[in-house]
Amino acid sequence: MAQLLVIDLTLRAFSSPVPLVASALVLVLLNGVLAFPLWPGGVGAYRAVVALALVPYGIASATGIGLGVGIQAVETVVGVGFGLGFAAHEGLSLAALGRRRDDHHKGDPDQQRPSGSELVGAGPSAHRTCTDGPI
């Protein structure tokens, strides 16, 4: 129900007032298409579904694609915002989560990145990244 409200209010905010039934159609089609991803991240599918769902309600395809971008942005901001808010409520921060990840991988040699000094003269099997600095 909350997602339907977000979609409907976003459509209205972008000056595309459509009946609630159109917002419900967008919601059902989005959830149906995204439940079976055709490619990683559903890139493009989100916008295309919104555009196709709104054509019967007099919204041009190009406008529908723009509305798809807007709806996806609003849903992302709302989801991340609530997630960060609840994490803060629990006393977590992004820095604390990073430290927990580092502590978790401390004993796992497969997850540790070698420092630059460990790589000098290590031979062809040395793993380098762009953040390790010059050889």
In short:
With 135 residues, this protein is an all-alpha fold.
Name the assembly state.
single chain
Fraction in helix: 55-70%
Radius of gyration: 23 Å
Count up the helices: 6
* Overall pLDDT level: 80
In N-to-C order, the SSE pattern is HHHHHH
Shape: elongated
End-to-end C-alpha gap: 56 Å
Largest sheet geometry: none
Describe this structure in words.
It is elongated and about 60 Å long. With 135 residues, the protein is mainly α. The mean pLDDT is 80. It contains six helices and no strands.
Task: Please describe the topology of this protein.
Blueprint: H1 2-13, H2 20-35, H3 45-54, H4 61-89, H5 94-105, H6 116-119
Give the tags.
135 residues, mainly alpha, 6 helices
